[in-house]
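FORM 12-B: Structure-to-Sequence Request
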């Protein structure tokens, strides 16, 4: 549905559409005190039951290091009833270690590489597993050689996921932890190096648990693995990185045309996968052209059920606000001359994640082709 022209001209100008998107920062970590038995936990869920391929990541800053025992990062392992799955930790003061179990019993894979961290220093630690191959990373760089596990598959246990503890001992991490990620995929060395100091959006492929810990215990994926704060750990403004939230961007890779059609079609290239219960700032540019003597185009947007779409567009001589999934008025084009249509606004998703798409068609049916051109793009960034 379009608002009237008078309101549109007051609400939007060309400057609005080309202004940069504000970027959010990593603002907090959580401070776990081993002396107070503090740790975080998430209930067992299907999303945290990994098979033979995984990646585990976290930022850690040790306040002290238990040189004679385990310094736990991520544990899904309960020896009671043989409910062991996987765990990642610093063993003593000099070994980055990973274990996984085929049948939940004590028999399984245990591998490590040498690494001697210091206290009062932030580190990004990661481990990946694919089949029997295990790799360790610190600050985006692989540590030691690729290790070989004795088993490929991982037992689907009922154990709680623990962050900063292994309760069966019990032992606790003494330090700060931030930006914890669990993947059901093996991250490549390049992917880890590219992303370890950048906040993710939460809907990346293979990401099944993601806790930014920026003054919140919520899971940024759609899986809802909210953490419990055990024994009242406090958030800290001391963080391992101040990286920016990634943009979600899709750019059209080839021209696409319609002929004699006023039926709005979804543009599968100009599509963004948005997470549930988020607000995004949207911007983009649509390059459109036609061979007709009097060409035009109409545009709209569609999203998952319950999405709140509040977008506007401008060209060099036209502005309009779009609310919801309706379409624009006819946007005049110039024959054989591309026109830039600037798009900006906000989208607030509902409790369901899904795709947000541009849709477009001819406003007046014409046998001459109307084309949305290569290089057109849509971009979203979580507020």
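FORM 12-B RESPONSE
SEQUENCE OUT:
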């Amino acid at each position: 549905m379009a608002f009237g022209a008078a309101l549109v001209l007051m609400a939007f100008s060309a400057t609005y559409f080309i202004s940069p998107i504000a970027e959010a920062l990593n603002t907090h970590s959580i401070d776990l005190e081993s002396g107070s038995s503090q740790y975080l936990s998430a209930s067992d869920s299907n999303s945290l039951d990994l098979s033979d391929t995984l990646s585990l990541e976290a930022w850690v800053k040790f306040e002290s290091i238990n040189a004679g025992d385990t310094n736990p990062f991520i544990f899904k392992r309960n020896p009671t009833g043989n409910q062991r799955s996987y765990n990642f930790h610093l063993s003593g003061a000099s070994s980055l270690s990973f274990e996984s179990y085929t049948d939940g019993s004590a028999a399984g894979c245990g591998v490590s590489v040498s690494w001697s961290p210091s206290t009062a220093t932030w580190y990004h630690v990661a481990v990946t597993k694919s089949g029997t191959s295990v790799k360790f990373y610190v600050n985006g760089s692989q540590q030691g050689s690729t290790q070989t596990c004795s088993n490929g598959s991982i037992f689907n246990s009922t154990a709680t996921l623990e962050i900063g503890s292994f309760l069966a001992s019990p032992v606790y991490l003494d330090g700060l932890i931030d930006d914890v990620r669990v993947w059901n995929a093996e991250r490549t060395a390049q992917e880890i190096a590219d992303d370890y100091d950048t906040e993710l959006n939460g809907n990346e492929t293979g990401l099944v648990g993601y806790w930014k810990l920026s003054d919140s215990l919520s899971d940024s994926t759609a899986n809802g693995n909210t953490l419990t704060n055990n024994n009242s750990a406090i958030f800290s403004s001391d963080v391992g990185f101040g990286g920016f939230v990634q943009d979600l961007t899709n750019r059209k890779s080839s021209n696409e045309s319609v002929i004699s059609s006023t039926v709005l079609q979804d543009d599968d290239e100009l599509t963004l996968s948005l997470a549930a219960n988020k607000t995004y700032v949207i911007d983009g540019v649509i390059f459109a052209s036609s061979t007709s003597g009097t060409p035009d185009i109409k545009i709209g947007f569609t999203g998952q059920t319950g999405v709140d779409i509040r977008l506007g567009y401008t060209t060099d001589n036209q502005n309009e606000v779009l609310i919801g999934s309706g379409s624009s008025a006819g946007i005049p084009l110039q024959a054989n001359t591309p026109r830039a249509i600037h798009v900006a606004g906000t989208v607030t998703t509902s409790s369901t994640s899904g795709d947000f798409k541009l849709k477009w068609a001819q406003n007046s049916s014409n046998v001459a082709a109307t084309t949305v051109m290569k290089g057109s793009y849509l971009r979203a960034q979580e507020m």
